[in-house]
Amino acid sequence: MALESAVEIAPAKGKLGVLLPGMGAVGTTFIAGVLAVRRGLARPIGSLTQMGTIRIGKRTDDDVRLIKDYLPLAGLDDMVFGGWDVHRDNAYEAAVRAGVLEGPILAELKDELEAIAPMPAVFEQEYVRNLHGDNVKPDASKMEWAEALIADIERFKADNGCDRIVGVWCGSTEIYKQPVDVHRTLAAFEQGLRDSHPDIAPSQIYAYAFLKLGIPLANGAPNLMFDFPALMELARANNVAVTGKDFKTGQTLMKTILAPGLKARMLGVHGWYSTNILGNRDGEVLDDPDSFKSKEVSKLGVLDTIFEPERNPELYGDIHHVVRINYYPPRGDNKEGWDNIDIFGWLGYPMQIKIDFLCRDSILAAPIVLDLALLIDLAQRAGLSGVQEWLSFYWKSPQPVQDDVYPEHDLFIQQTKLKNTMRHLMGDEVITHLGAEYYD
Questions:
Q1: What's the pTM value of the predicted model, to 2 decimals?
Q2: Are 272 and 148 within one domain?
Q3: Per the domain annotation, does 389 fall within a domain?
Q4: Which residues pair with 136 in a beta bridge?
């Protein structure tokens, strides 16, 4: 049964510009993938917005629709791509260097990819020590860098005739930082930009530029990008939708699938050891201990929230959770994640689970970038501002809507929240699976 919707969604008219801070393996795999799908060369596998379905009403109604037909999303043909990178390579050259996609498909897309060249990036070596490049903005104050990014965005929008812009961070992981006084208020942060405060990271300068222009933004890395009071103040003031952080792709995706199942069956866990090898730019960046710390914090937070050891101390109160990442150049973008899970069951008897996930990091991340670009554009057109917690489905370390609320990591709860928010936006009943009379 349809409900009267309280949400008015502006139509997705005209072109949608998708700007990516970071046009390396993930960014170019996303761009090339969308171009390939538009040409009918491939299918958008892994994209919920393009291939996923949603049920409306009772199961007996048999009303199941493609999400892309149900929601008023921007069309793939209406998307225009751009971004920034510390390397001068155009999208074709960067994709070849990344080594994710094979030659034949890149050859088909060469002309379109070569036309997409990155703008000079805002970059500070201290924040990503193992990354080096010469396509960077000249020395200036951090406020001047922010103003330069604002000019880049406005020029891109005008040059490409875009009606709307969204941003998705696809750049590298910065060193681990905690908020300090400069992050507490917008006034303090803006003064910090003018003073080039050392605790304002490049990702935060990008975030300020996007939010200042009222452009929605998604944070695909574990960086302290906008999840602090100053930029949340700006997001609320300018009615901007934001979401983050850290794309949930390989090993953490497996954890958010498996851990809820163990908890649902009340099986205990003594330990969960995870290690990874990868050889792409992300692996090189994470070879720096301070950058790895940002990723480690993002990865380690998953199990605590799912298992709730404070509520289940006998089962999960003494878990030894270890995460390791090793840079191994021969592996390239084809990451391998090993998990050893020591569990116990009836009468405390021990058992083990072993996982060896040979995944392709950017292949898993690219459809997430697509979904986030489309859904955060939808959120903005629907007048939703601030943290979009319903998009936590896509994140390793989802940002809660307020500080005193813990983030939800259970993939299946996240999926329910995601689809029920879609139903709410369209004025349909949410599905609770309650009551035999509903055949749910």
A1: 0.93
A2: no
A3: yes
A4: 121
